[in-house]
UniProtKB/TrEMBL annotation:
GO BP terms, alphabetized: phosphate ion transmembrane transport
Keywords annotated in UniProt: Membrane, Phosphate transport, Transmembrane, Transmembrane helix, Transport
Name of the molecule in the record: Phosphate transporter
Organism annotation: Hwanghaeella grinnelliae
Family the UniProt entry places it in: Belongs to the inorganic phosphate transporter (PiT) (TC 2.A.20) family.
Single GO cellular component term: membrane
Segments passing through the bilayer: 48-66, 72-93, 105-126, 150-173, 180-198, 210-233, 245-263, 275-292, 313-331, 359-378, 398-417, 423-439, 476-504
Keyword Nucleotide-binding: no
Length: 505
């Protein structure tokens, strides 16, 4: 080899440098995520932008309703409703995209953009023309003595629920915004009329959902993770298994979302019957399975027989699942911000108490864009909590969480259970973590394959597993405690706010 050739070769090596190991790459990705998060949520920008949005919400209400005593109440309610929408975006949306960020299928900024777009689309396209003024039917509007009492009760409920969700976000606890509104309405109703106003059987069902939601989500997620581990990860030929099973798993996801959106997501556009919903679900399943079989086969050509290859194959389905979850969430949970606002507006304008009211477009816009803005300004904190800090995620585990969330809501709808999407998603994450702890220590198939290949990147020794649990107990206890106290805390806050208003008037 000539001297010139040697120099060229040496220069090429110097330019390329040493190859980065997996740990270095992961640390670099985490650095980018943290930098993006600090850029979005540091300094005075978030409170200033949030303040501008609230001012715009009040101005929009004033423009559409005009000046007047009762219309001032609508303007105040619009500001509080905008504040609630910001808090929903900051706290609740993390459940949809957090696992995808934790699995590194999405960057933090990419997750924020996808969630904001699909949350807004879900709220505006499928949020419903009519919403219930009394969340989950927990109080009887016929017992409310007059519209003025009802207005102040709804105002107190909306304020209390927004304050509680804000506090939970600061503490890093993902809570149910639906349960926050339920507690707020209950507390204000009791303060205004008395305990007889509350539908206690309904409240009992809601209390039962505190246990049912996370357990059901955790069990379904653990079942799917067990299936993936036994049929894709701990098998000799991972690529052949992926070609067989990943199209089926993606088809189940497509069918579940088609069913979910048919039942709950397109109330504003279309209300299909049961037979039509079944046909839509079966069609979505079959079409997706037929499409994904050649797609997965083509993507897997030339891949190594490693878990990293499986993670790459799950990446795109996981991103699609996060987008669909965001759409469904926006369609259903925007009512937590605009339901009480619409109720206040109706009572202020017409002087009566209605069980259901129409939603003007400007009210829907406050809810939709408030959720998206709250996600951008304050969402990264809860996204990191849900996606990274509870337990370690990868695309397969995150996909199980998304699949569990969709299936659990469908099962709960059939059973008539008032479950929380937040409790389901976070319960699924806990289920994933606790199942991994169990499976790692007890699976004979895993131990056999680990003995055959010490290069298995899923391997964690039993000694290491004993040293560090896969679910962080401190976060587990904080979140469970926040769930338990959400309804009584918001009820107490709402009742005190209503009494303060009554005393001031």
């Amino acid at each position: 080899m000539s001297r010139e050739t040697e120099q060229t070769s040496s220069a090429g090596k110097a330019e390329s440098g040493p190859r980065k190991g997996s740990l270095d790459k992961d640390l670099e990705k985490l650095t980018h995520i943290e930098a993006a998060s600090r850029t979005l949520s540091s300094g005075m920008a978030p409170p200033v932008l949030a303040g501008l949005f609230l001012a715009l919400s009040g101005t929009l209400a004033l423009f559409y309703t005009g000046a007047g005593t009762n219309n001032v109440l609508i303007v105040i309610a619009a500001v509080i409703g905008g504040y609630m929408a910001l808090n929903i975006g900051a706290n609740d949306v993390a459940n949809n995209v957090g696992p995808a960020v934790g699995a590194r299928a999405l960057s933090l900024v990419g997750a924020l953009v996808i969630a904001a777009v699909f949350e807004s689309a879900g709220a505006l396209l499928a949020g419903g023309d009519v919403v219930s003024t009394i969340s989950k039917g927990i109080i009887d509007p016929a017992q409310v003595p007059d519209s003025e009492t009802f207005i102040w009760a709804m105002m107190a409920a909306l304020t209390a629920s927004a304050l509680w969700v804000n506090l939970a976000t600061v503490l890093g606890a993902p809570v149910s915004t639906t349960h926050s509104v339920v507690g707020g309405v209950m507390g204000a109703g009791i303060a205004a009329v008395g305990f007889s106003l509350v539908n206690w059987p309904t409240m009992g069902a809601i209390a039962a959902s505190w246990v049912i939601s996370p357990l059901l989500g955790g069990v379904i997620a653990a079942i799917f993770l067990a299936f993936i581990k036994l049929n894709l990860i701990y098998v000799p030929d991972k690529i052949a298994a992926a070609r067989r099973w990943i199209p089926l798993l993606v088809a189940i996801m497509a069918g579940a979302f088609a069913c979910y959106l048919s039942i709950k997501g397109f109330k504003r556009i279309w209300k299909p019957d049961g037979l039509t919903i079944g046909a839509i679900t079966a069609t979505a399943f079959a079409v997706t399975w037929l499409i994904m079989k050649p797609v997965i086969h083509r993507q897997s050509v030339g891949m190594e027989n490693r878990n990293q290859s499986l993670r790459r194959l799950f990446r795109i389905p996981l991103i699609c699942a996060a987008a669909l979850l965001s759409f469904a969430h926006g369609a259903n949970d925007v009512a937590n911000a605009i339901g009480p606002l619409a109720a206040i507006m109706h009572s202020a304008q017409f002087g009566d108490v209605a069980a259901k009211v129409d939603i003007p477009l400007w009210v829907m816009l406050i809810g939709a864009f408030g959720i998206s803005l709250g996600l951008f300004l304050y969402g990264p904190r809860l996204i990191r909590m849900v996606g990274v800090r509870i337990t370690k995620m990868n695309p397969m585990r995150a996909y199980c969480v998304a699949l569990s969330a969709a299936l659990t809501v469908i099962v709960a709808s059939w059973l008539g259970l008032p479950v929380s999407s937040t409790h389901i998603a976070v319960g699924a994450i806990f289920g994933i973590g606790f199942f991994r702890e169990y499976f790692t220590g007890t699976s004979s198939r895993r131990k056999e394959l680990v003995r055959r290949s010490s290069a298995d990147d899923e391997f964690v020794s039993n000694a290491e597993m004993t040293r560090r649990k896969l679910v962080r107990r401190s976060h587990f206890m904080t979140i469970v405690a926040a769930w338990v106290v959400t309804v009584p805390a918001t009820a107490l806050i709402s009742g005190l706010i209503f009494l303060a208003i009554s005393f001031a008037l």
